[in-house]
Design goal:
Mean pLDDT of chain A: 95
Distance between the termini of chain B: 42 Å
Helix content of chain A: over 70%
Low-confidence stretches of chain A: none
Low-confidence stretches of chain B: 139-144
Oligomer: heterodimer
Number of helices of chain A: 6
Helix content of chain B: over 70%
Shape of chain B: globular
Radius of gyration of chain B: 18 Å
Distance between the termini of chain A: 26 Å
Order of helices and strands of chain B: HHHHHH
Structural class of chain A: mainly alpha
Strand content of chain B: under 5%
Structural class of chain B: mainly alpha
Order of helices and strands of chain A: HHHHHH
Mean pLDDT of chain B: 92
Shape of chain A: globular
Largest sheet of chain A: none
Number of strands of chain B: 0
Number of helices of chain B: 6
Strand content of chain A: under 5%
Radius of gyration of chain A: 17 Å
């Protein structure tokens, strides 16, 4: 699976279609952070079942897809310790901001939410600065 | 029918993330590496997703309620506070280090190795941390 803008566009359209389906069908926002956090509350009601269905398919469908077309080579930029620390930072940050790339970046921007615009502008900026520092100033 | 719709959406979302390249940290970091070998792919992902989602919001407003019952999400709150900006800044720091954000991290769970699994496990703990602290504070305030 080589990098190309066409695959980016097709994948993006699918992500948008999935978010649209969840909104128009169930009235829910396809934000990974919100759905994950709601699921982890473990209140076992009807909404919990919806969140569980979304998350289970989110994890399982890529495996089924990869079985058909071949596994993508996914390489982490760092080892286990740094990736775990990064995961913690990502989780705490998205939890505090009540959203991540899917909730604020896709669903929120698409409805012109001012909060989501502020959130997306902020995390795009800090991500860019982090990459700049790590790759060009430190050379990690 | 609602859990079924949710699962359909989750599956489509997951496969879309894999095809888009969002599950590949090297592609994501390449987009942010403006000073290096810039990879514009992520811009097409965002443009494609928003191109579908923006009319969906409009259509949802026209319909007035979801097709499978229930209610539409309430309008977003207007307040831009320190929690939103600070949390987003922190999130960007982690995304810039690892190249992974929450949805792709989950979609890649079955496809990638232990470094990805460590990220996802720590992310789950992190997502719960703010609400756990909040919950304790609320409990102290409201249940004396």
């Amino acid at each position: 699976m080589e990098a190309s803008w066409q695959q980016g566009l097709v994948g993006g359209l699918m992500i948008g279609a999935a978010a649209a389906l969840l909104l128009l069908g169930n009235g829910r926002i396809a934000g990974a952070t919100g759905i994950l956090r709601g699921f982890l509350r473990l209140d076992f009601n009807d909404v919990w079942l919806e969140r569980g269905g979304f998350l289970a398919a989110l994890i399982a469908a890529p495996v089924l897809y990869a079985d058909q077309v071949g596994r993508p080579v996914l390489e982490a930029p760092f080892g286990i310790a740094v990736m775990a620390m990064g995961g913690l930072v990502v989780g705490v940050g998205a939890g505090l901001a009540n959203g991540c790339t899917s909730g604020h970046g896709v669903c929120g921007l698409a409805r012109l939410s001012k909060r989501s615009m502020a959130a997306t502008a902020t995390f795009m900026a800090t991500t860019g600065v982090t990459v700049l520092v790590l790759r060009h100033l430190i050379g990690a | 029918v609602r859990p079924f719709i949710a699962a359909l959406a989750g599956g489509l979302f997951g496969v879309g993330l894999v095809i888009s390249g969002m599950t590949n940290p090297m592609i994501v970091l390449g987009f942010f590496d403006v000073a290096g070998a810039w990879n514009p792919r992520l811009a097409f992902v965002m443009a494609g997703a928003i191109a579908v989602m923006a009319p969906a919001w409009w259509l949802a407003g026209r319909l007035g309620r979801p097709l499978a019952g229930g209610t539409l999400p309430s309008p977003p709150p207007a307040a831009i506070d320190a929690r939103l900006v600070g949390g987003s800044a922190l999130f960007g720091l982690g995304w810039g280090i690892t190249g992974l954000c929450p949805a792709p991290a989950l979609a890649a769970l079955g496809l990638a190795g232990p470094a990805f699994h460590a990220f996802a496990a720590a992310m789950v703990v992190g997502v719960m941390a703010p609400s756990l602290l909040q919950g304790r504070r609320t409990a102290r305030t409201w249940n004396p």
